[in-house]
From TrEMBL:
It comes from Dichaetophora ogasawarensis. PROSITE patterns: GMPS_ATP_PPASE (PS51553). GO terms for cellular component: cytosol. This is Burgundy. GO terms for molecular function: ATP binding; GMP synthase activity. Residues 1-80 form the GMPS ATP-PPase domain. InterPro entries: GMPS_ATP_PPase_dom, Rossmann-like_a/b/a_fold. Keywords: ATP-binding, GMP biosynthesis, Ligase, Nucleotide-binding, Purine biosynthesis. It comes from the Eukaryota. Transmembrane segments: none annotated.
Length: 80
């Protein structure tokens, strides 16, 4: 379920030179790395909130972390 949410996820971004926000394409159709990061971050928060609510957890007692180090290193052509 969550994988599909990420794959089909979109978000709103403000593009350079524009005053209004625009809806991004779905993650699976996005090529812009910055837009991908924004979509992944926003969907991560949405999925986290949904799961916390579904499990009836107290949000103030939940700590999750998201990391993208390896994809960032690959994208920047860093040697590791």
């Amino acid at each position: 379920k969550e994988g599909y949410t990420f794959l089909k996820g979109t978000t709103q971004v403000k593009r350079p030179g524009q005053y209004s926000v625009v809806e991004t394409p779905m993650l699976c159709q996005t090529y812009n790395p910055e837009e991908k990061r924004k979509i992944i971050g926003d969907i991560f928060v949405k999925v986290t909130n949904d799961v916390v609510a579904e499990l009836k957890l107290k949000p103030e007692e939940v700590m999750l972390a998201q990391g993208t180090l390896r994809p960032d290193l690959i994208e920047s052509a860093s040697n590791m």
